[in-house]
Amino acid sequence: MPGSGRRRPLLPDILTFDTSAPANYAALNGRALADDVFDDTLHAVYTNSNGQFGCGNAGTAAFLSSGDRITMNDKPFGSTFPFLADPF
Q1: Does residue 23 belong to any structural domain of this protein?
Q2: Is residue 8 part of a domain?
Q3: Which residues contact 27 (CB under 8 A, 6 or more apart)?
Q4: Distance separating the N- and C-terminal Cα atoms of the chain
Q5: Residue 58 main-chain phi, psi, to 5 deg
Q6: Measured CA distances, 83 to 11, 29, 61, 69, 70 (Å)
Q7: Which of 11, 26, 75, 83 has the most beta carbons within 10 angstroms of its beta carbon?
């Protein structure tokens, strides 16, 4: 199936969590609110089996290396559950 190698790291669509380690989406251990899930997902999809980011294409690698340029939430997270920022 074409493209199946790119989808494989993203399947199955579950999020595991080991309570003995800190939550970290890039390390495939849960997800902290401040984790940059979009950039981490781009890295997973566009890294080939040889570990080349951008799948060996210099232009793609250069574009993706800057990520989505969103470095933080636009509002501070709450201090109590569910920890999400107040809506606008």
Answers
A1: yes
A2: yes
A3: 21
A4: 44
A5: -60, -40
A6: 28, 19, 34, 23, 19
A7: 26
